[in-house]
Amino acid sequence: MTRVAIFTDNDFEKVNGVTTALSAVLAHPPDDVSVRVYTASRLGADRADYLALPSWGVGIPFYGEMRMYWPPYRHLLHHLREDRIDVVHLTTPGPLGLAAVAAARRSGRPLVGSFHTDLAAYTTMLSGRPALGAFMTHYMRWLYGHCERVLVPSQATAQLLAQAGTPPARIGIWGRGVDTTLFTPSKRSPGRRFVWRADDRPVVLYVGRVSEEKGVRLLPLLHDALLRLGIDHRLVVIGEGPLRGEIARQCPLAVCPGALGREDLAEAYASADLFVFPSTTDTAGNVVLEAQAAGLPVVVSEYGGPREHMLPGETGLVCPPLADQWVRAVAELLMDSGERRRMGTAARRYAERRTWPAALAPLYEAYRAAARREHVSPPAHVPPPGLLHGQGAA
Description:
By secondary structure, the chain is an alpha/beta fold. Helix content is 39%, strand content 19%. The strands form three sheets. An eight-stranded mixed sheet has the order 3-4-2-1-7-8-9-10, with helices on both faces. Helix 8 (218-228) packs across helix 12.
């Protein structure tokens, strides 16, 4: 039995792509792998597969409404020994990521990493300071340089890490799956559409964080351009974030209900007609798979990982990050219900092939290989950020 401790700053009170993926890891372990999440949170929890140590939190820079928690390191080490952990898995670059590096070194356990967020791009975009983004690139290279294997959700992310200095031989692909019993066209709800005041209008749906790095400033431009073209529709924006109020003000005809629970979200997907996801920074975009599972054609950016989680021209369209291109693509689909149905049917078929057990197989194999020490040894020393002979971030 290979016993794995997954260290994450994303306690399960948060709902995002990381917690979705980690919930799937806990739900589908093979018989020879035992997995437990280690985190810190406002509320403690101690279950067989999930340990959240209560701790104090601080606001995340540029994400003021979200908090990360400082881990009680000695307690984490105690649980590592009690759980007889064989492999440590680092998933995030915050305090728990640093704790994972320290705990793996202290205990002599191999360290596997998974890369979920392009923090350098986020930092540059949200701060407006390229130097901070460059520093974050160096920090991420330092952090993941301790890992024997780094798993990423897309080829685009693999290229990103390789360009940032991670040896390609250390990088592997761990794709994403989707729960097609939860997300299904059968949950389409006339009641949900009535609440949205959709009537016979096609519903254009966005799901995700309503923040700068998700490209959501495109939504008001898209909405207004479609109305000027005389294309009646209802824009629905689901999620929380600092731009939610601004989007609601700019699009008074749009519906912005905030975040939804999983069951309500599944019904919302199925009750829409087209899904748009303009982010250029996402490494995976689980929501793109969820929308396709619900039978929606998708329109995504040509940059980032989401385009690898759909079939261009078959289950949706891929656009450059230009407003006129998005308007043209979305307008064509809104005016052609037959094409929407064709793509939606293909999207559902595609999603049915993206099962979580198949997607997770490379991750579990990385655990086994690390436990057997069948890996490329990490560098003997990785210089910490800011200490390269007095130089700044690379």
